[in-house]
Write a structure and sequence with these properties.
This protein is of the alpha+beta class and about 180 residues long. The chain has a single domain, classed as Beta-clip-like. It is built from 3 helices and 12 strands. The chain has a 3-stranded antiparallel β-sheet with strand order 3-9-8, with no helix packed on it. The longest helix is centred in the N-terminal third of the chain and has 15 residues. The protein is globular and about 40 Å long. The structure holds zinc ion.
Amino acid sequence: MSEPALHWNHPLRADNYLLNSLLEETSAHSVSIVAHHGQHGVIARQTFAPGDVILHMEGERRVAPDRHTLQLDDNFHLASAESQPGGYPAWRYINHACEPNSAVRGRDFVAILPIHPGDPITFNYNTTEYHMASPFTCTCASPFCVGVVSGFRYLDPIEQERLRPLLAPHLLRRLRPA
Ligand SMILES: [Zn+2]
């Protein structure tokens, strides 16, 4: 156990420590976790071209979804372990969009559009989640916005088909072959 000997009496020092540890974990300053009006998100700190890996997910397996898990397979929901005092990995904070700029490939978030520094990283939760534990109303303003985001099983067949190129394998299996 290599707990760094830190003194927490200086807030800035603590913040810097947390920020640095998060940045290290998210592959060399490629993204930052940001908070805005109490909502967290993740923004790019560099340019990503389509196909570039933005970050890799680490975590623990759960058999049921909760508010913060990401589904990787049937009965396999990845939960983010708290990696540092008060610090979770960035992937936990990536927000939903109905027309996102990234997609989950295996355990990687991969850019599907050109992404520039400062852009929010997003993915479509309906491309990994079959049934969400905590549905919410999306306000992304895309013409393709589904409104309530509650998981792939609740989408109409047209929307399921639209998502085909972005679907995780466990959801692709549920679509008819193209
Ligand atoms: Zn939307």
